[in-house]
Fold:
Amino acid sequence: MKKPVAALAIIANRFECGGERFDALLKSTKLLFKNSEVELLEAPSMVWDMADAVKACSYFKTKSPDLLILIHASWVQDSVQYLFTNSLRLPTVLLAVPFLETFSLACVQHYSAQLTRRGIPCLSICTDLNRKDHRGKVERFAHAARIARKLRNTNCGMIGNRQTWRIAAAQDMTGEEWDFSENFGPTIVHIDTDELLALAKKQSQTAISAVATKVKSMGLVNMLENGRLDFCSSVYLAVKELKDRYELSFAAAQCYPNNGGIANLASALLADENFVLDTEGDIGHATLLYMCSLIDEKPSCLSEIGAVCGEGHFYLEHEGSTALSLADAVKTATLRDCGDGSMLGFRLKPNMEATALSMGETDHGYMITALEGSTVEARKSDWDTLNGRFLGAFKPRDFAAEKAHDEMIQRGVDHHFVLKPGLHGETFKYLCQLLGFDYFSL
Structure:
């Protein structure tokens, strides 16, 4: 797993107490993050003045870190802090040391106030960093910083038919697409469905058969005829070719209502290869799936709430394009006909901590909703009524499902959800701060 990289500088003032602790502070900080989710990139030396700060920034610029951590060994002039801020332009963690004589806490509070007034996101920790919960905050802030940086340098494939519906634009790009790229960062690459299907037809039978054989060997219940499995395998190969051709970080394929099911198997297989392929042409939630993949390079699932159950959980369902690694039991998973392609259906693993995430527009931008909880067992009898689609059961941590659903309706939360294993609400709270989005959580 690729970790967020944090540029680390310890700053002090020669006219104040505290700088003499440099060696001890560096040693304890490195020990704290030794087995963490963050990789430290140390400044070449202690930062005593502007000259040291310039050298540290010049070094950091050659390494492209995701965030900056400033440990305040003592009170410092804010011109030194400003130099780091304006030179590196990175999300910043401001750390105070727990020594009264240093005025470190006051320094962090002062500079945090300056950044806040200017709308520059930062995380300030004014008590002992060695507390485990504080390290966790830094890790989650670091993940958010890495996600925000990666989004600015990605190509997102939008696979579908050429759009012809226009209100105030005569060309292919819509105003909504411009807004999305400006707010999130990804560059949208238009790819016609005809190009995908033409590439699928060009795949060699040898390559197609190899994919089909791999699928059959996974242990699931294959209910497809060989011809349809071959077609779905060829689409998988074609998507991989498009990924390389357009240097895509992730993609969304418009497969509803036309071309139903053609990308479901490809999406499921690619998810376990850490490539996101949304199957509804939903760029927003494809981006959300990609964000989740950057946390730990493990798959999430796209779903929607199908029922609010009396036992306190939601049923999350979808057509069937989720990674097989998330199945409760691979041997009961089914691959069957769906539209022009297939769908991979199973019950989601129970007893996983998880975060349900949704994204939507507001009247002034975007909002991400995060709901932490855990998965519970989905009843087989309920799964049977879906005729082999995907079914998961999710129980919110702090609220009954019905109350949580009512709150989401009131806030205008839309129906698509990404379910990410693990508790990641705080990471997305920090990410919303970095991107300037609203954050809604229960």
Q: What stands out?
A: The chain has a mean pLDDT of 93. Residues 132-151 form the longest helix (20 residues). The radius of gyration is 24 Å. Residues 5-151 form a domain with the Rossmann fold fold (CATH 3.40.50.10940).
